[in-house]
Amino acid sequence: MPDKGLVLELHRDEAENYWLNVSTAAPKVFVLWRMDGDEATPAFATVSYGEAARWMDANEQVDAVPMPPEIREWVAEFARRHYKPPEKKGKRFASSKAEG
Question: 15-22 vs 49-57: helix axis angle to the nearest 10?
């Protein structure tokens, strides 16, 4: 059987999900499997939490494997360039209201 290498493509609209993954202690690559006759073969790979969750919501077979360091560095750099965290606004608590 010929080698069916998987290609990881990064998309700007998934940058937050990439950042959530690579900022953990144990980032993962998620692999979607498809049946090829009697054999399960890897069909797609992602490093996006969101994309993996969508696959699982669609009842696809998905496994998580440890992300190699060189992929983590590549994904982290992409996420730093394209993910802009929301600005934090001052929190308001009932106890902070001025008493009058």
Answer: 100
Q: Tokens at residue 46, please?
A: 């992602």
Give the pLDDT band (50/70/90) at residue 5.
confident
Which pLDDT value is given to residue 60? 96
DSSP of 2-68: ----------GGGHHHHHHHHTSSS-EEEEEEEEETTEEEEEEEE--HHHHHHHHHTT-EEEEEEPP
Radius of gyration of the chain (CA): 19
Cβ proximity of 10 and 18 under 8 Å: yes
The three-point CA angle 56-76-67 to 5° equals 50
